[in-house]
Amino acid sequence: MASQLSWLDSSRAEQQRMRELLNMFSEQESRDELGIGQVRDAFGDLLFPGTSTLHTRARYLLIVPWCFQHASRRPDRDQAVEVDRVERVVISALRTAGATEGLIGRRASTGVKTLPSTIYASALHTYGIDGGIELAAASRDTEAAELTELRTDRWPATLPRSPAGFPEAVDMGLDLTQQEADWLRERILTSTAGTLLAHLLQAGNRPEDDAAEPWRVSAVGSASERVRTDLEYARAFSTCMQGAALLYNLILAEEYEKAGHDRIEPPDYREALARWAERMATVAPWDRADMWSRLIAINPRIDTNLRARAFIEAWIDLVLAGRADGAAEDVELRDLVARREKTVKKTQSRLVNSKLLRGWTGASGSRRLVYRWPQVRRMLTDIHDGMEATGAVAA
């Protein structure tokens, strides 16, 4: 069934989390097997407000409003249906033009289920592009359709105009023009001041293409003390908690072999844990009370998620006390991780569900947390490309 759009008061954050959760089930390395996703996402929001693992290209922050504006020119039509149609016309136009890098619908074409207006709804609101009105995916009803019809023109007066021929043609594809890049940059800077995202949007702070993690970007060194502290907390948390994920996968690998399964050959998690222990040497104890304070300010629910916080604190206490070396054989660490996975997954735990263990793919949430960085870096690159084009023209 095609996605329908309406203006609703439902929680943007909850809808976005659910879409990202569903997406993660198709990405074995991103799964939250130990129930720390709430904290991970709070770090993502702290560093990069409005972003999502589902985002692909920055120009969608303009393409979505253009679709709504175009649909509003046909007030005789159901606006939710018309927006849906226009978005699919855009997908077809971009595919025809060969603008497929980051294209939503690259594989499914116009049959894609989740449209850009759904994926970018939270970002549009966070950056003040939607005029303060919440965009949400929902099954259409009379009241929702009326709200859609009344409010589709509520976009900033300064919004750059859609290219000539839109939506049947999209000049520049998914690349930003100089005007568009400057406009988006100002919107995001204004709405996310004091964050790493805003800092990396400053002229000259373009992230390096080979910076696989946000803390490896050279421009970080010139950020404010507040931003650098946010990022250091995120780095330390990521490094510490990857050990728990690796140990969980080691336990699974042992159980998998013990059960006689041989469909896949798991990675060498003992070696991975040894390399992780070496990285732990770069992590010193930090002000975790301050870290929790900052995260709870982003998501107050973390304050009442006592089991997750207790697990995280217990793990960090142990590995910072020198237990990272030898983690593969540490009975207390192994028990801590196994109990946590069983608590989180219950009957879906691979450690108790033999069917799920048999279907294990060899890696479950074992990558280091980078807080949406691949998607954020792509969006930043798009905007910096446009900004630099401005300089080239001026020159």
Description:
- With 395 residues, the protein is an all-alpha fold.
- The protein folds into 2 domains: 229 residues, no CATH class; 127 residues, no CATH class.
- The chain is 53% helix and 2% strand.
- The chain has 16 helices and 2 strands.
- Strands 1-2 form a two-stranded antiparallel ribbon.
Cα(first) to Cα(last) distance is 51 Å
Number of domains: 2
Mean pLDDT reading: 89
Number of helices: 16
What about the largest sheet? 2 strands, antiparallel
Tally of DSSP β-strands: 2
Task: Please write out the topology.
Layout (H helix, E strand, L loop, with lengths): L4 E3 L4 H13 L12 H11 L12 H12 L7 H18 L19 H4 L1 H6 L8 E3 L4 H10 L26 H14 L4 H6 L23 H34 L10 H11 L8 H11 L7 H18 L7 H15 L8 H5 L14 H22 L1
Antiparallel strand pairs: 1-2
Question: Quick gist of this model?
Answer:
With 395 residues, the protein is mostly helical. The protein has 16 helices and 2 strands. Strands 1-2 form a two-stranded antiparallel ribbon.
Features of this protein?
395 residues; mainly alpha; two-stranded antiparallel sheet; 16 helices; 2 strands; disordered N terminus; disordered C terminus
